[in-house]
Amino acid sequence: MKAYHRSILIWTAIIGGIILLLFILARAGANQNTNPEETNTISLSQSVTTQDHKKGAQNAAFTIVEYSDFECPACATRTPLLEKLLTDFPEDVQIIYRHFPLTSIHKNATLAAQATEAAALQGKFWEMHDVLFNTQQTWSPQEDPQEFFTKLANSIGVNTEQFTADITSQAAKDAVKEDAKEAEKMNLPGTPSFFLNGQKISFNSYEQLAKLITKNE
Fold it and tell me: Are 92 and 213 in contact (CB under 8 A)?
């Protein structure tokens, strides 16, 4: 009987320990931020400058800075949400685009970013931004998409001779590198990464994004 009682005590202690461990893990999980609408702890390291690519209200109450990669499928899906936000809140929101090409997994992302900088020299950054995302699946697998990028530039009214010279210029390369350097400084986990008025945010739908604006009005 003593051995039997000892076995019961041992198993009771083991089961009790498991229950306690599960309780602790459950409490820890409950304390984690699982709401994609909530802001995270990362703050924007570089404030908005005159060099940034901007779209929307000039004196906006809400500024969204996006660190993005033109070869990133998730970035392409977020673009229409930002456009809708600008349509719904034309006097309240400004969008800032910054480069963060993930070169380890997206071989053409850096050149795509440089293509927008080349187009920007002719006042066509956002037009190039849009056509690159709209044709992402076409140029992404190409070995060398520069010719395709030149055709895109021509389709939006960019002087292709100047574009060809600018896309690989040091100025275009430096502009992309400067943005990427800031992203790395903040240890951003990937793309797209968004900041609302300087604080990192997450959202999975337009409703969640719009709620971040309306709840702060």
Answer: yes
pLDDT digits (tens, 9 = 90+) for 116-165: 999 999 999 999 999 999 999 999 999 999 999 999 999 999 999 999 99
Per the structure, the count of domains in the chain is 2
Contacts of residue 51, defined as CB under 8 A and 6 or more positions apart, other chains included, come to: 175
Residue 177 lies in a domain: yes
Domain enclosing residue 93, as ranges: 53-214
Tell me which residue of 112, 111, 133, 115 sits closest to 124, measured CA to CA: 115
Rounded Cα gap, residues 124 and 17, in angstroms: 64
* 125 in the same domain as 21: no
Q: Is the pLDDT at 38 greater than 80, yes or no? A: no
Amino acid at 108: N
Answer for the pair 67, 192: CB distance below 8 angstroms, yes or no. yes
pLDDT value at 66 more than 50 = yes
Asked whether the beta carbons of 209 and 203 are under 8 A apart, the reply is yes
Angle between helix 125-134 and helix 109-120 axes, rounded to 10 deg: 150
Is 48 domain-assigned? no
Residue type for 200, please?
A: K
Asked, for residue 46, whether it belongs to a domain, the answer is no
User: Does the predicted model carry a pTM greater than 0.70?
Assistant: yes
136 neighbors 77 (Cβ within 8 angstroms): no
**pLDDT reported for residue 24:** 41
- 195 is written with which tokens? 């900041």
